[in-house]
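With this grant's support, we have settled on a layout for protein records. One resulting record is reproduced below.
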Amino acid sequence: MGATRNGKQSLSGSANLIIEVDEDKIRCKQYSWYFAPAYLLFWVGLFFAVIYPLFQALPTGIKISEEADKPGRFVAERAQEILLKISQMGPRVVGDVDNEVTVVNLLLDEIEKVRQVMRDDIYQMEVEVQRASGSYLIKGLTNHYQGVQNVIVRLSTKSSNSTSYLLVNSHYDTKPGSPGAGDDAAMVVVMLEVLRLVAISGDPFLHPIIFLFNGAEEQPMQGSHGFITQHRWAANCKALLNLDSAGAGGRDLLFQGGPNHPWLMEHYRNSAPHPFATTTAEEMFEAGIIPSDTDFRIFRDFGVVPGLDMAGVYNGFVYHTKFDRYTVISRDSLQNSGDNLLALVRSISNAEEMYDTEAYAAGHAVFFDFIGLFFVHYQESTSLALNLSFSFGAIFLVCLSLWKMSRVTGQSMGTYAGVFGLLFLLALAGVLLAVAFPLLMATFYDWGNRTLTYYSNSWLVIGLYICPSVIGLVLPMTLYLSHKKCNKIPHTYYMHIVGHANCVLLAILCLGTTALKYRSAYLFLISLIFYVAALIINLLTRLHCRGYLWSLVLIVFQIVPFIYHAYLFHMFILILIPMAGRFGVSTNPDLLISALCAFGTILALSFAAPLINVFRRPNCMLGGLALVMFIFSMITVSDVGFPYRPKTNVMRADFMQVHRKFFEYNGSISLEDSGYYFHLGDRNIEAPLRDHMNLTNLVRLGEDCDSELMCGIPCYRYCSARKHALWLAREEPVELPYPTVLDFLSKTVLSGGYQVRYEFRVTGPPNMGLFFKPLDGVKLLRWTFAPAMLDNPATYRPPLEVMLTYGIDNTPIEFFVELSKDNGNFDEPVFEMGVSGHYVSPHDKRDALSQQFLATVPDFAFSMEWPSSYERHIF
């Protein structure tokens, strides 16, 4: 270090580089401690002033009286009037008259109204009701259906000769007990209004449009399977717009696209006026984190139709409950959906890419909206280039900054490298603690049987998970900077290096996620871009060496990434908190919610939070955050922390009123009883119900699962959680609306003597189930149903589940099974078969005792319930 001249230092290096700098500007004092709370409140205020209102923003719904002044615009009020009619029908389950007749007639009437006003000089319309039957494998069960219905409209321009169709799909059936205003009647009425607007517009379009009003999505996805595998127009469908919902009202999230057709994202960017999308949601959906599915899967897997999958995600608390009513769907939310769909239909129906979509299949896309203001998308190859460029560029600029610091202070580059290495390890420790502290909170609450305390008051996650995450993020750095004794490097430069350490850590994460082919690496990229921009400005303007002035530039450049990341994770938390109520009893949902809060905190505040160390007494700020955390913890053990609320945030307490019979090989009945089979939705199991319902003799059926076929219960659809089922016996038999009957038609030993064929006929309600379990030495070879399970015995092990559904066609279902037996002796038991009947229609009466029991369900719970039968046979 050279001599001091006029308060400045002359610094020379090995290359005779001389830098003059005012030492006072480097070694300036930290800001007063009382500015620190204002600094943290700035970020809180930014969230509530910008992010929250923009997240809630919806266009104003257009009224019918305004239509003349706004020609060609989606009219939300007209859609709302039809929504009221559909919602008033109540639940519409497959096989019930409301689903197979009433709502179908309403749709045909509304379509006819469109035909009456259509420009028939320009367009032609074809309408039909499809009745489909089929069988396929989905999610571990064979789905066999008969006579399910779809209402289909083909609208085309008379002058068009295109054989490429745009398919638009939504469904009008519902879950048992739910009016389904949000899922999915709202999208049905949006489609009807879009159909009307296109048909009266007078604007030609290149490609015919198929409007598929799907009558069996909840079964699951039978209507879409029936269309795409059997209908004559299916092969011509080259692009898809799928509309569904995991909530009621609000904005529609684009959460799946393609796959491998980024041109669809280009049309979304250019046409959708209210963008709301993220590729991270797509990857979470594909990973199974979100417990839902849509028809998009069927069109993709069975029809290879690329498309865009959009769903309402707001207010998932009413999803699949009786509270999913007309009143929870605002006119503004219909306007939002209608504006987007109308624009997309107009754009894609005129797309040149539709003539040969495979020519434009160019890999996956990265896509996201920025707080609803605009939409960004680029191809995966571009993502690779951007991620690599900014990650390595950030590392280079960090090295350049460290070199400049060493030249300014006269310390060796090795000294700065050592400090950087130490601070990098502290940054890594901070990230790990930012994840660990919320996870520990979630674990402790689970141990104390206090899960889902935030379920009705989502703001509680601020104190429970976000504050602990912020503490963990900055704790290692703050402790080190507060107690370090080395003064060779100014505190201002230490703070620089803290940011650099976080930058390099994010660059490594960006490179790692890119190498693993996660397109969500763009989240790290956004943080890197703005940190690099701030660093470049500081280096070029010499603010780099002027005390803490560089931090002002950094703060300004952190506003955009903070807004985006806080917006994104706010969205995920609002989506997944309602879903946490149906994750099942074996999963601690608090772990997922706390992890989301942690990752959101890290991405939003990884550069901003450590800057509390530019203020004096940063430990006091950590103490303040710990105090907030303690206060929120105390709130959660009060009534505020009780998870559920009537009507708005209900507990899922589904159960069936079951009558069981166990038949032995000789036809005798070894057991006949009745009871309530509970399938509870969340981690709290039955505990919240015990103060309101008589559950004294409630038992878990896990032990019976080893000795009884399907645990001896009529599990419905996906039965993987049956080991967690609960059973409450009752003395009086359950009275079924009508019987489910299995007729044994014939048994034939086939040529060779080692195979046998059994034939059966089953009659009963529109929803039934079959379960097959070959005994020792027996193999199930063939059956009437889709063969995929039997073709993959290593994957699908007995017992095998077949779901039977019929819609408008209630013809008895006949089926056969063929088996082989090692010893060829078919005069002894060969296999077990279970038969269940599910009386899910709202018109199927519950017996008096069941109604009395149902009346004891507390008002904070909703039960999707119905009578059910179960018979176990041995053949």
Remarks:
- The first strand starts at residue 4 and ends at 5.
- Residues 413-447 form the longest helix (35 residues).
- The CA atoms of residues 453 and 639 lie 10 Å apart.
- DSSP finds 20 helices and 25 strands in the chain.
